[in-house]
Here is the input.
Amino acid sequence: MSTDQKYIYENDCNSDENRNKGSSRWSQCRKRGADGSLRKSQAVEELGKCSQSTHRPESFTTPESEGPVSRVKNWGDEVEAEEMRSNVRRDTHRYRRRILEADFPQRDRKISSGSSDSRDSRDSKESPAKGDMESDEATLIRRQKQINYGKNTLAYDRYIKEVPKHMRQPGVHPKTPNKFKKYSRRSWDQQIKLWRVRLHTWDPPAEEGCDVQQIEEINLGEIMDFEFDVEYSGDTEYLCPTSSGASLALAEDSFTGTSKKMMKIEDTEMS
Amino acid sequence: MENSSKEEYKIQSFDLETQKLLKTALKDPGSVDLEKVSNVIVDQSLKDQNFSREAGRICYTIVQAEAKQTNGNVFRRNLLNRLQQEFKAREETRKRSTQEWVCLVSFICNIFDYLKVNNMPMMALVHPVYDCLFRLAQSDALQNEEEVDCLVLQLHRIGDQLEKMNMQLMDELFNLLRDGFLLQEDLSSMGRLLLLEILEFRAGGWTLSETAQKYYYSEVTD
Here is the structure.
């Protein structure tokens, strides 16, 4: 059985590894054709084996393993990965259209840095050509996952209910980082962290002292907001991020288990 | 309202308690054990032929409801993984019970038909579905009317979609069917008729011409 596919793993992301503990851990696997063009990227099961699109038997034996190793990934993960990819592609098309629209007829539009127009006129200034836009699919998918973690929180829900998009004031109201802009890896990760920290302002009500501490806390990369809710329900020892230490599960995966929004439903039922 | 949703999702064959569970899952997915719901549905699809052909609908609705309510994917993920297990064990299932095997195929194909991802069929299921159909096109299966019937039903329902996803495999499949029709001696005449019809169906662009329709589907008069 020839296994002549080359797989390139995305292993350059610390926060991904920290986040993806537990059985739902998966990393992006990218296949390239011989000419370097991107093929569909797929979710990888824990063994890290990728399957591929041609018709092949389900199992094979690799020299280093003890017996037949299943090449088939689990369908749940595969479909989620498909969904993520197609969402990102759709977003990419929309964004490109938006950029083109912004570029062309609107020459006389005032481009002010204070603009909070959802079209973000600065986009057109900074990425006049499509080539200036981040278009690498694996990167976009990774960034989207990070954005999803942030959006899948009660804090974000409360934030968008409280402040409609058109009412947002730059500097005051956090803005979701734009995954289509070119940034270095560090720059992007830092933006995400800061964004997540700022979102904590809208965390559901807690003990007074802790709110302040949350915002001052820098290293909140992997906090799951719903942990706070669980703590809050009756527990007087309301713990702030770092003091909870190990109890903060870092398996942030917005795709498995009941999401944080579930807690909201339970919350309303309790009150 | 009660009965129409029973009708719509074909859940009459479940016991009352399970029907209740399903109805709750449709309205308030966050409040039920979705893994259990998915197991209940798969179990029933393997037993009940009618349900296996229609279960996709209720699954789709639950998936949508969960996505809307909690932004979650628990039901779909559990459903698919359970389905994958059953798929892996399909050969044993076929040996044990032809009925269960054809139910499994119908169910997988129905899921393929209904559970779309951003309006596109799930790519992950394309090869598994083809695997099932290829199995049904083997000579031992073609002898068996129940299996031929299942095969042609699926091709009627999702053949065109499958072909779009992979033309080459569909060509290969139909080569097998053509060979079976022409060369296999132990086919029943009904089996042969079914094969002929599906061959014409695809040749006509996944539809039957009027004359063919008359030939295959009108009452035979004395």
Remarks:
- Strands of chain A lie at 7-9, 28-31, 42-43, 59-61, 68-70.
- The CA atoms of residues 150 and 196 of chain A lie 6 Å apart.
- The longest strand of chain A covers residues 28-31.
